[in-house]
UniProtKB/TrEMBL annotation:
GO cellular component: cytoplasm
SUPFAM superfamilies: Second domain of FERM
UniProt name for this protein: MYO7A protein
Matches recorded under PROSITE patterns: FERM_3
Organism: Polypterus senegalus (Senegal bichir)
A Pfam family: FERM_M
Domain FERM: 1-155
Gene (name only): Myo7a_2
Length: 155
């Protein structure tokens, strides 16, 4: 797992977005770790469907059964399965012609705006917290060192 996402910007590295960032963020989104609007959930659900099935609409009837793969777990009960399906399908149709890769990038660009994007969520266990803090401090020191040397060479 990538611990520090200090420089991650969706669209900057399409390969990393496609094979790493999307799959890193998807489970955190589905576990309900981010605060998001219902409209965003409809849109993101449609994008997740598109990543899985591209333009194949034959799985639409199964959407109510696959909600835990499309909608954050803490929000599923806010609407009936058929209402979720209707809204996700409506957003899917608005995204017509998008590829799997474009859907992954659109997903990332939406959640990138959230303050919790790129955060690592885990139960606190002594050594993990120590490892995370050590990595964070190391990153800060590297950044500060680069800034100092840049200022020094500018004089």
């Amino acid at each position: 797992m990538k611990k520090l996402w200090t420089n991650t910007v969706p669209g900057k590295d399409s390969m990393a977005d496609s094979i790493f960032h999307y799959y890193q963020e998807l489970p955190k989104y589905l576990r309900g770790y981010h605060k998001c609007s219902r409209e965003e959930v409809f849109q993101l659900g449609a994008l997740i469907y598109r990543v899985r099935f591209e333009d194949d609409k034959s799985h639409f009837p199964s959407i109510p059964k696959m909600l835990k793969e499309l909608v954050p777990q803490d929000l599923i009960r806010q609407l009936s399965p058929d209402d979720w399906k209707r809204s996700i399908v409506a957003y899917f149709n608005k995204q017509a012609g998008k590829s799997r890769e474009e859907a992954k990038l659109m997903f990332l660009k939406i959640i990138f705006k959230w303050p919790t994007f790129g955060s690592a969520f885990f139960e606190v266990k002594g050594y993990k917290m120590d490892d995370l803090l050590t990595s964070y401090i190391s990153q800060m020191l590297t950044t500060m060192s680069k800034q100092r040397s840049a200022r020094g060479s500018a004089k």
